[in-house]
Amino acid sequence: MIRVRFRLPAALAALVLSTAPLCANAWWNVDFKQRTTVTLNTGAEGVTTTEAINNVAVPVRLHSGNFDFIGAKPDGSDLRVLAADDKTPLKFSVEKFDSANEMAVLWVQVPIVAPGSDKNQLFVYAGNPAAAAEPAAPVVDAGAAVTLRFEQADGIARDAAGGGVVASSPVGLDPNGLIGPSARLDGTRVIGLAANDRLKAASGAPYTITLWAKPTAIAGTLYAQGPLTILLERGKVLVRLGRLQFEGGDLPPSAWVHIGVALGAGKATLYVNGAQAAQADLPAAAPAIEGAVRLGQGFNGLLDEVQVAGVTRSADWMKFSRAAQGADAKLVASQIQKEGEAEESEGAPGGYIGVLAKSLTVDAIVVIAICGVMFLVAVWVMFDKTLLIRKTDRGNRSFIKSFRSAPDVLQSGGAQAHPGSSLARLYDSGLQQLQARKVGQPDAPALTGPSLNAVTAAVSADLVRENQKLNSLMVLLTIAISGGPFLGLFGTVVGVMITFAAIAAAGDVNVNAIAPGIAAALLATVAGLGVAIPALIGYNYLASRIKNISSDMSIFVDEFITRVAEQYGQTERP
Fold first, then answer.
1. What CA–CA distance (Å, rounded) separates 70 from 60?
2. DSSP letter (8 states) at residue 286
3. Lesser CB count within 10 Å: N end or C end of the chain?
4. In angstroms, what CA-CA distances link 152 with 40, 179, 251, 327, 557?
5. Strand 103-113 vs strand 92-98: parallel, antiparallel, or unpaired?
6. What is the pLDDT of residue 338?
7. What does the CA dihedral 20, 25, 29, 32 come to, rounded to 10 degrees?
8. Measured between alpha carbons, how far is residue 216 from residues 180, 231, 571 in Å?
9. How is the chain split into domains, by residue range?
10. Are 107 and 95 in contact (CB under 8 A)?
11. CB neighbours of 424 closer than 8 A, spacing ≥ 6?
12. What pLDDT does residue 204 have?
């Protein structure tokens, strides 16, 4: 390797190094024109965990806010998923990809989720017309013996891991389920699984059952196998294992709830929505669990993501699984990036700052004047955006309180009652679509799946526009952040050149002759940094607030569509 050494004046070398931009992470493959960054925050600001979770299956929901469906292939065959190092491919499976309505769900096998960290990331790439579809691969949690996701079009549940466990009969599907389609039970149908070695546990052996349920009424059996029964009774989850019986959790009807029962280490623990709800000591001679499985006997509602594992799931695993599958905004955040985009970074001062304004050269005066204009523009943008965000936050808090307390989804006040609320404007958009379909009027037909998808698409489109409104003018701050230091450096370099040229012409080389010109030239860099640093602070603050509002809007769209489907959607298969 050839080494070349350059000798630069110390101050000038420090200045050059201090204003060099930081490089963005390299793109995995330039043939893919977009990527979505998905962050799993297990730190204090997310869903806190204290132990590493290995080989967990995480659902990744894609929509128009975090994925460009127009730029991707219509069938999603150009999807690729990379680990946090942006180099290692991850196993994934596509449960749903609807480019027309701009919605998709991927299951991704994440090798490890570190505890207490906001750096757990994965990247979803797309936008390569020449890419061939990845071969299908089962994606399930480590330790899972059987995983049922009810994603099959024929309604017959099959083990997602390909273990050969198949339901005995088809079941009705609700397309607007928890993650993708969910099983719809009416109190008379039962999902039966024949006895299988993968569905058995010896006496005292570790065993865990987890599932999601959305009961119409708090009654019915969720899971029954030999001596083990998990049922809903008196508004709680009741667990029976032989003669052992315990209960816990307060369950509201018509709401998704995550339920888990973990057996092991002499304990039987019930988890409801990721939190421990009850625990009991296992008898010394605990009965073995084996035989056929019956799901949903006497249960009326939706069922999804039923998992049987031959391990004892921990409290952290339950908490993480519930948050990941339930799309908890504190845990899961996502953002789209197009190929070639990079994060801006700022320079830092690196030399002695002079105070000799009278020694300013013409170029330095021009640069400082331009920086002054940029600073004023940046301050105006930050002030304007802060007012907008505060107004939006106040309106959103007022609206969401009204929306959630209204018994009928059509009776919440819209933008007129909650000025400034982006959620209210999205609500008005959805309300307009529903009114066009005469929803809520006497003798109006129930909403069908396609109609509900059309309403979702319209509201999601307005969500994108709301995001564009929130992010408008933010580019002026990025210009100030990246352009200010370079503009200041330009003024400094030209000023230094003029100073040395003047010294050479005068033939007077001494510190008193050099210092005023160099100090004055550095004022241009100070001006550039004076623009960039406040703009950077303001940009990061505003970006975080905008991200929170965007997350709230995405959650509201899901909540709004879910309530519409509950109150005005079809309850029987056509």
1. 19
2. P
3. N
4. 28, 13, 29, 22, 26
5. antiparallel
6. 77
7. -100
8. 19, 14, 11
9. 9-140+329-337, 144-310, 352-574
10. yes
11. 395, 396, 399, 413, 414, 415, 417, 418
12. 86
Q: Which two tokens stand for residue 183?
A: 């099983």
Q: Residue 517 carries which side chain, given as an amino acid letter?
A: G
- Residue the block writes with tokens 């309403």: 455
Q: What's the fold here for domain 144-310?
A: Jelly Rolls (2.60.120)
Contacts of 337 (CB under 8 A, 6+ apart): 34, 35, 36, 37
Residue 66 · residue 335 · CB < 8 Å:
yes
DSSP 8-state symbol, 135 = P
Task: Point out which residues pair with 260 in neighbouring strands.
Answer: 210, 271
Output the six-digit token pair for 185: 């039970």
Question: What distances in angstroms separate CA 525 from CA 352, 479, 514, one per listed residue?
Answer: 11, 16, 17
| pTM metric for this prediction | 0.56
H/E stretch holding 120: strand 120-126
Q: What is the mean pLDDT of residues 259-265?
A: 94
Tokens 């210092």 found at: 515
Indicate the burial class of 564 (C-beta count within 10 angstroms; 0-12, 13-18, 19 or more): buried
**Residue 71: which of 34, 105, 122, 124 has the closest Cα?**
34
CA distance 438 to 444: 6
Instruction: Work out the angle at residue 65's Cα, subtended by the Cα atoms of residues 306 and 379, and round it to the nearest 5 degrees.
Output: 135
Give dist(CA 241, CA 226) in Å, integer. Answer: 9
Q: What is the mean pLDDT of residues 145-171?
A: 84
- Pull the structure tokens for residue 313: 């799931």
pLDDT value of position 59: 93
Rounded to whole angstroms, how far apart are CA atoms 232 and 240?
11
Query: CA 347, 348, 354, 358: dihedral to nearest 10 degrees?
Result: 20
Alpha-carbon distance of 315 to 53, in angstroms, equals: 11
Distance (Å, rounded) from C-alpha 83 to C-alpha 467?
27
Question: 184-231: per-residue pLDDT in tens?
Answer: 999 888 999 999 888 989 988 999 999 999 999 888 999 999 999 999
Interatomic CA distance for residues 528 and 68, integer angstroms: 36
Residues with Cβ within 8 Å of 450's Cβ and at least 6 positions away in sequence, in order, are none
Please count the helices (runs of H) and the strands (runs of E) in the chain.
7, 21
Assess whether pLDDT exceeds 60 at residue 510: no
Q: What stretches of 265-346 adopt beta strand conformation (E)?
A: 267-272, 275-281, 293-295, 300-309, 332-338
459, 563 contact by CB (below 8 A): no
